[in-house]
Amino acid sequence: MANDLGFIDPTAGGGRAMVALAPRPMDLAGKVVGLLDNTKEQGTLILETIGKVLQEKYGVAKVILRAKEHYSKPATDSLIDEMSKEVQVAIAAVGG
Amino acid sequence: MTEAVDEFEFFLNKQWSDGFPVVTPTEARLETMLKGTRCDPDEVIGSIPPAMEKATVRTVAIHALMAGCKPEYLPAVLGGINLMLREEFNMNGVQGTMHGVAPLMIVNGPYAKKIGIHGENGCFGPSFRANATIGRAIRLMMLNLGGGIAGIGSATIFSTPLRYTACITENTTQSPWETLAVSKGYLDTDNVITCAMVESPRLCFDDVSQEPDRLLNGIADSMVAMGSWNMHARSDMVVAMGPQHATICSKAGMSRADVHARLCKIAGRKVRDLKNGGNWRRERALGFPIKVNPDDDDFFIPAIKEADDLQLMVAGGWGPCTAVCHGWSGGSKAVHGKYEI
Amino acid sequence: MCSVHDTIEFEKRGIPATVVITQAFKNAAVFQFKGKGMAGHPYIEMPHPISNLKPEEMRELTLRYVDQLVRQITA
């Protein structure tokens, strides 16, 4: 916090760990897609609609729809771990 | 040679400013502030969501100092932020939500009294340094370290005046009952903080009722608005009875627990009524932690779904008024615990 | 904003992920991605509110975003 201001500037920011984007596949053909539903209104319908198009138009092999316990709380590590073993890409809805 | 910086403008121009000047945090003042705690300044308290900046005893002390705290307030600030970062309190959800709730700190025990946290006349308002600055220190951390800034990290529609500060104690001088903390099993000599995510208080003025039945009907009515999340989710609620109202109940032989139980029982609305407006949604009702029949128009939906969601306390000055703070939808559960002095 | 958190958790495990949000949460989502070390992470932004759309309207709206969504999770 040393500076030449004569006082402390506690403004946060910087020094945070960065997370790299996971490598993207070229296409979704034959892939298993995980859909994480936060149970907020419309979430299920949005994800089901997406899942259907991904299978019909993009050749996705399988979609797995999982719901988390509460929309305003993060999914449990075990749910994410479990899904991560089964799927190659993931979509979450609805944020907000 | 750099030009002299106006320290007031420097901090008022920060994105995380609460709009008021801060006490300029100098190393000398920080050293004095840190004398308020026995904790190691490098001790990590936790990360404040959503920005997840780390709060250490030192950074908490800096925010307390900026907020205008005395060193002896620091244990309450540390105790408060410690509790608020518990998972079940869901700080992350509150920081981002569209709704406008704030973590209200209810500080019980001898230390609250010693440092002058106020629970009597005007306890939700200005004029009391401990209330004003302890809550403000928490808010400055939520803004700066957590990034819960309206329009940035927070999608809040209105926010709430409780986001300037939200720290009170009980009126133990005039309360006829044991404190909220004692009702939870703590000792009178314990220093305890209870935090609940709530909206600003709504006042229930009643200078007519002279007996509990009528009085509690009126208070219960203030707990059941159609637009309140308490009617549409499991949600906390704080009811701060004025000592005069509490005394009406106690004189009629009601204990604190009796009043608590009565409010849980009578504060609610029938499905028929709830369907006519507000946030009613059949699926929401089915998500309650209690069994309901949303298709039965005569089914009674209580504002308090689980008894410990109601924080019943006695505060404010003598007069015929009770304050009711409604809760939030997003799965925050009130937290309480002892803090170190 | 916990769906943003979940999205990042997938990314951390090497699973490409994206999230559907509504406009009211856009700034909060962007901020949260930044705060959690993934500044600039893509997302799908739908208008707000959507909670009162009829199922058919909701499906129709969703269909407009699928191609964009696929671009976000493929190379």
Describe this structure in words.
With 96 residues, chain A is an alpha/beta fold. Helices cover 27% and strands 20% of the residues of chain A. Chain A has a 3-stranded parallel sheet, with helices on both faces. In chain A, strand 1 (32-37), helix 1 (43-58) and strand 2 (62-67) form a beta-alpha-beta unit. The longest helix of chain A is centred in the middle third of the chain and has 16 residues, at 43-58. The mean pLDDT of chain A is 87. Chain B has helices at 7-12, 27-34, 57-67, 74-84, 91-96, 110-115, 129-144, 180-183, 212-221, 243-251, 256-266, 271-274, 282-286; strands at 44-48, 53-56, 102-108, 167-168, 192-198, 202-205, 237-241, 268-270, 300-302, 310-314, 321-325, 335-338. A 4-stranded mixed sheet of chain B has the order 4-3-5-12. Chain B has a 4-stranded mixed sheet with strand order 6-11-7-10. A two-stranded antiparallel ribbon of chain B has the order 1-2. In chain B, helix 3 packs across helix 7, helix 4 (74-84) packs across helix 7 and helix 9 (212-221) packs across helix 11. The longest helix of chain B is centred in the middle third of the chain and has 16 residues, at 129-144. Chain C is of the alpha+beta class and 75 residues long. In chain C, helix 2 links the parallel strand 1 (17-22) and strand 2 (44-46). A two-stranded parallel ribbon of chain C has the order 1-2.
Give the arrangement of secondary structure elements.
The complex is a heterotrimer of chains A (96), B (341) and C (75).
Chain A: E1 32-37, H1 43-58, E2 62-67, H2 77-86, E3 89-95
Parallel strand pairs in A: 1-2, 1-3
Chain B: H1 7-12, H2 27-34, E1 44-48, E2 53-56, H3 57-67, H4 74-84, H5 91-96, E3 102-108, H6 110-115, H7 129-144, E4 167-168, H8 180-183, E5 192-198, E6 202-205, H9 212-221, E7 237-241, H10 243-251, H11 256-266, E8 268-270, H12 271-274, H13 282-286, E9 300-302, E10 310-314, E11 321-325, E12 335-338
Parallel strand pairs in B: 3-4, 7-10
Antiparallel strand pairs in B: 1-2, 3-5, 5-12, 6-11, 7-11, 8-9
Helix pairs in contact in B: 2-3, 3-7, 4-7, 9-11
Chain C: H1 2-12, E1 17-22, H2 26-35, E2 44-46, H3 55-63, H4 66-73
Parallel strand pairs in C: 1-2
